[in-house]
Amino acid sequence: MEIEELKRKLSGEEPQKIIEYALNNYKKIAISFSGAEDVALIDMATKIKGDVNIFTLDTGRLHPETYEFLDRVRDHYNINLKTYFPDAHAVEQMVNKKGLFSFYQDGHEECCGIRKVEPLERALSSLDAWVTGQRRDSNPASRASLPVVQKSGRLIKFNPVANWSLKRVWEYIRENRVPYNELHKRGFVSVGCAPCTRPILPGQHEREGRWWWETGERKECGIHLTLADSLSTTRKRK
Amino acid sequence: MEIEELKRKLSGEEPQKIIEYALNNYKKIAISFSGAEDVALIDMATKIKGDVNIFTLDTGRLHPETYEFLDRVRDHYNINLKTYFPDAHAVEQMVNKKGLFSFYQDGHEECCGIRKVEPLERALSSLDAWVTGQRRDSNPASRASLPVVQKSGRLIKFNPVANWSLKRVWEYIRENRVPYNELHKRGFVSVGCAPCTRPILPGQHEREGRWWWETGERKECGIHLTLADSLSTTRKRK
Amino acid sequence: MEIEELKRKLSGEEPQKIIEYALNNYKKIAISFSGAEDVALIDMATKIKGDVNIFTLDTGRLHPETYEFLDRVRDHYNINLKTYFPDAHAVEQMVNKKGLFSFYQDGHEECCGIRKVEPLERALSSLDAWVTGQRRDSNPASRASLPVVQKSGRLIKFNPVANWSLKRVWEYIRENRVPYNELHKRGFVSVGCAPCTRPILPGQHEREGRWWWETGERKECGIHLTLADSLSTTRKRK
Amino acid sequence: MEIEELKRKLSGEEPQKIIEYALNNYKKIAISFSGAEDVALIDMATKIKGDVNIFTLDTGRLHPETYEFLDRVRDHYNINLKTYFPDAHAVEQMVNKKGLFSFYQDGHEECCGIRKVEPLERALSSLDAWVTGQRRDSNPASRASLPVVQKSGRLIKFNPVANWSLKRVWEYIRENRVPYNELHKRGFVSVGCAPCTRPILPGQHEREGRWWWETGERKECGIHLTLADSLSTTRKRK
Hints:
The structure is a homotetramer. By secondary structure, the first copy, chain A, is α/β, with parallel strands linked by helices. Chain A has one domain: Rossmann fold (3-Layer(aba) Sandwich), CATH 3.40.50. Chain A has 9 helices and 6 strands. Chain A has helices at 3-10, 15-25, 39-48, 64-76, 88-98, 103-106, 109-124, 166-175, 227-237; strands at residues 29-32, 54-57, 81-84, 129-131, 149-152, 155-158. The longest helix of chain A is centred in the middle third of the chain and has 16 residues, at 109-124. The two termini of chain A are 26 Å apart. Chains in contact: A-B, A-D, B-C, C-D.
């Protein structure tokens, strides 16, 4: 089925239907679990199918609470959570040259490239499709027109909760007693790496809690912003 | 001017206009400062008039951060912040009989009565009018029809931000660099006494952070819910 | 029995023996519980005698963790914990004039006088003897020669753990599973009012965590330093 | 000079003298900086010699406060802090099989082996000597007879503060305004990886804050306990 047709077919559906379609139609598929509230996806997926591939990116700079949360989710759903870790040499090279907080000076792209994008590329290299927890309302500057399904390089990417609001996701979490990161009890909404995440004030948009020293459009970790291009480039080169 | 006429006159006005009207037309008037984000009122008032009466209720159970915040506001605006403290005998009697957390068992009314309502009555006894930071959206169960001005016993009560949303209040705070309680950096939205206040989760209504063991309508500290009656009763008795 | 004789008799005894002597020989006696680790005294006392008078001073500025701890001790030992609260008028007068943190400028004596010494005098007014958790090693500047029993105005004061070190007290707490303040898990050793208490660094003396802007000898809340004189003066005046 | 002779020569000396001797007599020498209070060594070394090799092991599980501290030290002393990071494949293999907290079940050796010992071996491979912050009083079970200098495989290991107590180290830190980890303000004394470190209670030995689910002798991260053997074995095999 063509992507545009698929988009039409799924765009009005509930997240569960979208996940079900994805899991039923792709064998080499996995859910990327970024360690925050998108465990709602895991909750939905494991109710549909016992055996789901789930992976997460351990950047080496997550909060202690996030590591604890990842393990809690692994136990709670009895899943095989596959973890990808950054390349030692690349991390050492960057850190030895620039220190541990260079992103505050020259932007988060380099660090995200080493700690997130490269491990993600390894994670995706054996897949045909993946499922993410992206929402349109999570970044008005860059995700305003995010579809529930899209091409991402040679892969199909499903965003089952693209249409859901933050509020709706959290209703689901509470109703279904889905585990969540302890940081959400302390004002954190969107949770990423520790140095690039902060709690937000009342009334602030969740994106204010990420890469706050940068402007709206750049506030993407690189996974979703540049991956399509970087991957297709990679493929072309080969 | 009759209250209904006044309501019509002020209901569409911006908070600053309402405060200005109040301060200009009532001599025995004060702003009640509950120690959270309604310092926006103080910011507006002190820009209108140098010498404003402001009082706060120190219940003896506020967070250390709240005491620090009260003092910071006092210094920042160079105001004479009048504090009311609960009666020693009444506190001792309740606590000796029931312990320090009896409200979790038999409701917050008794404790609020001793630590908030009685001190408030002392604060109001010499006033003709007071200004509060109540908003309609802060408690859908009990404040949905809150007017910007109303009778409260023998007093006139102004609620200048009744029409403002939480989001709008916080825009004002950020734009005007208004000081705020450090607790707001840790997931607290509505802040009262320490044992009766908690941070909320993403997507939760601010009222979920107060008296969470009780149901919606009772979630008022007694100041705004029962005062009108209790005061008018008091007056009638005399 | 004369005080000097009593001192000789008890000075080499274990705390339990001293408490036992005190409880058996004085009817109007109470343990003052300052809300930190001296709950060891309560543990010893309740093992000796079912019905012990215990009082605490709620200054209105304790940590939320301390209030929670006081209630936990009350439940754990099923004791009637008598609480004394400061006089509203005295607190209001000080705070309205000087703000909530005047002690950082002009010393803690005035605030301790209102929030601790006056309530303590009420607590002691009906007693002949009291039991405290003072230790010699807790303040080398002022407690170096603290005896296990002494005259304090017209009262007899017992200090059963005067000879014990901090380390010994905490061994007792762990061995006997005595409840302790949660703040002790976060670097706090000596715990008093929130604004006048801080965690200490490794290797620091516990007294560094109290009234750190003042010098050693003054680092007493006034209860133990000046009470003897103030009480005897009071009595003489009558 | 023979090791025994060197030991006699240095055992009574102050740390500064020992460091000075080490830096002057070994070219391929570095200070291992474990990210806690042993920055005292760096303070001493940089006062002796401008250009000192310092390395640290970033296990990927340090506290956010520790990363912040490492960078603060790097800036403060303007040093070239060389960081070693664990091998991605080894971390992934362990974590995918056993989860992120397997050390609580089957001991810390495997995880320390991957995250600390292997990176350390890389760090030491080009050195003839290294300087550590080990103290005798930091682990009575395993370090009671720690000398100020010893053989460690083919290397010479200097322990300049072996004779110093925790208290003495912290006196040095305060007197010399040496930067320290913010965690030390919250009850942490000995600081390692986040999941294997906890604050201690008053009166507890610092070692109670590390690997608390294991017994005394095993409470070594493997760096100092087994390295000598593992290294000499490695060498022999080649």
